[in-house]
Amino acid sequence: MSFIKITEQPSLHEDLEQLSVRSLLEGINEEDQKVALAVRSCIPHIERLVTGIVERMQQGGRVFYIGAGTSGRLGVLDASEIPPTFGMPDTYIIGIIAGGETALRHPVENAEDDTLKGWEELQAFHISDKDTVIGIAASGTTPYVIGALQQARKRGILTAGISSNPDSPLSHAVDIPIEMIVGPEFVTGSSRMKSGTGQKMILNMISTSVMIKLGRVKGNRMVNMQLSNQKLVDRGMRMIMEELQLDEKKAKQLLQKYGSVKKVLDIYNKK
Questions:
Q1: 164: which residues sit within 8 A by CB, 6+ positions away?
Q2: Catalytic residue among 31, 112, 185, 243
Q3: Domain positions in the chain
């Protein structure tokens, strides 16, 4: 089967500049509705990946997202949300983007074309076979990502790739290919749209499922969240009030004393 770049196929919507605002919005929404179904078809592969990650993280392993452009930014975003949401140190899920910090806000010329740089950046973390590397590239052809994954896989590190093209070079470079085929973009080739939306959904699924399986959620509550603002403190108090049937004053005292919802619940459950 020859490699087909669906991400570069012409949009199904013509003469966009002549459409009304309402028609543009409805067209974008029409395309977005295809994303969840495309992601759903990937669940067996995502399940295999999550299972592998949990096994490795229970032995001290880490997860590395690696990508360029929009894909890299989404990886960094997901990684950055783990500490405040689940109370895990930022050393467990790490986002790496071609071009470094600058590339989060500005394009860095030729950064994604370097086949060696991605692996060099992974080596700086003393990566081992307990870790997992997830490459993100809508096209499935980004040299920076593929080069890093090839080197990681050679060394027995679990690898996965998230792309929007079937049978891509990225898929051939990894243990677990996750091919989310969302079809042509509303604006031809603009993979920040449906492909980016699907990538975000898949990253949410991976990291959230992993954190739940590692015990960072109780029931359906973020009991390990960082209490970094008043909204989260209030949420924490409500959790304690509901779980332990305490009034607001007592819940607040306990939260201030122990610093996290989980610690409060653990102490009370031992009584």
A1: 6, 7, 138, 139, 140, 179, 180, 181, 182, 191, 194, 195, 198
A2: 112
A3: 6-213, 230-269
